[in-house]
Write a structure and sequence with these properties.
387 residues, alpha+beta, 4 domains, 5-stranded antiparallel sheet, 7 strands, 10% strand
Length: 387
């Protein structure tokens, strides 16, 4: 029997409790229209064996590589072994077999992944969930059966994190903030830093461009733990946090700000292809750079590539669902392609995210006009159907 419904009626915490108490085996899907994203959780007799969010799905071997748990040579060696007669073997199994990483570390990484996904899903207040019962053998391949996590322990940890997050949110409002080193004190007095090893570790990764999620990925640590460390650094005045749009550019050859300035200048003088190349180069380095997504969309619009504009803005929404301007522009872009449902939905999201914006009146008028047009079109279609 399928279990489904909107999250506004049954929260994700209650859904997990229900599946735990009834010892369900199957797949839970949680879809968020606002985020244009989906989370998937696999249960085996009420325990969680796998979880991922579509927009952040990264193969385990790449997580191990990014966090420094294995080297590129380790990964290439495992891939070579699979190519030479071990085609059915899992890459992670081959890494363990080669001694590049331990089974205990694999289990630790998988648990961190599950905790991170469940914690994120618990923060979703809108969306739709559906659970489909399946036999244990239908769930997934063996890698995801390496670990079974108590749903009760996940819910307790999630509740603890939400409670703690409410206390640090005044200084660290989200995982999308970018930490930067605080300015040197004007009185010229130097102070000695007395930091713990985890704090030094995080401090060494702060470059003015990476947000908390990127830092957590680079260190192979839980996102919440990174947020907690950064909160401590902010409290002691060592770092500051900025929203992505206010992040400080890195003044070197690897910084993205010069490339964005080049793209803006190219767009202003009509060199659209040059602007598009520059913005795509930025997005190759920083897929979640909202400014680059918006600039790419505007460039595609100037080239009259309307369908691509919508696709670009959808990617921007997946990267950062809480930036009002992205929803505003997606609404107008969708109208041009005739996707009225997306247009109205995007504008409604904009109004929820920016209720005091100067654009509110214009957006409300656009929604009203679009709704009337949709009613006219529906009536016309019905008249045709009825002869």
């Amino acid at each position: 029997m399928a279990i489904e419904g909107p999250l506004r009626e049954l929260g994700i915490h209650d859904v997990f409790q229900l599946l735990d108490l009834s010892r369900k085996t199957g797949v839970l899907r949680v879809a968020s229209e606002l985020r244009d994203d989906e989370g998937v959780v696999h249960f085996d007799s009420g325990r969680v064996v796998h979880a991922h969010v579509r927009s952040k799905a990264v193969p385990l071997e790449m997580t191990l590589l990014q966090s420094g748990k294995i080297s590129k040579d380790d990964l290439e060696s495992a891939r070579a072994k699979r190519t030479n007669g071990r085609a059915d073997a899992d890459i992670v199994d081959l890494l363990v077999e080669n001694g590049a990483v331990t089974s205990k570390e694999i289990e630790r990484q998988l648990r961190m992944q599950i905790e991170s996904v469940v914690f994120e899903l618990m923060s979703w207040r809108e969306g739709f969930f559906s659970f489909e019962e399946r036999a244990a053998t239908e769930l997934s391949h063996s890698r995801e059966a390496r670990i079974r996590v108590s749903t009760e322990s996940l819910l307790m940890e999630g509740a603890r994190r939400i409670d703690e997050w409410s206390r640090i949110a005044d200084k660290v409002p989200s995982l999308a903030v970018v930490p930067v080193l605080a300015p040197v004190r004007e009185d010229g007095q130097a102070s000695q830093l007395d930091l713990l090893p985890p704090e030094w570790e995080v401090l060494s990764t702060i470059d003015g461009t990476r947000d908390l999620r990127a830092i957590a990925g680079a260190l192979g640590r839980a996102e919440f733990d990174i947020a907690r460390v950064v909160y401590g650094l902010v409290t002691t005045g060592v770092v500051e946090v900025r929203t992505p749009d206010r992040a400080l550019p890195v003044p070197d050859e690897h910084g993205t700000e010069p490339a964005l300035e080049q793209a803006r200048a190219a767009l202003q003088r009509g060199a659209c292809e040059e602007a598009l190349t520059a913005t795509r180069a930025v997005l190759a380095k920083e897929p979640a750079n909202t400014r680059a997504h918006l600039l790419a969309a505007r460039t595609l619009s100037a080239l009259n590539r309307r369908d691509e504009v919508v696709d670009q803005l959808r990617r921007a929404v997946r990267a950062d669902p809480l930036t009002p301007e992205v929803h505003l522009e997606l609404g107008f872009a969708a109208v041009y392609t005739g996707d009225f449902a997306t247009a109205r939905s995007s504008w409604q999201h904009y109004l929820r995210l920016a209720p005091t914006s100067a654009q509110v009146g214009r957006v409300r008028a656009a929604i009203e006009a679009l709704t009337k047009l949709m009613h006219v079109l529906e009536a016309h279609a019905e008249a045709i159907a009825n002869g």
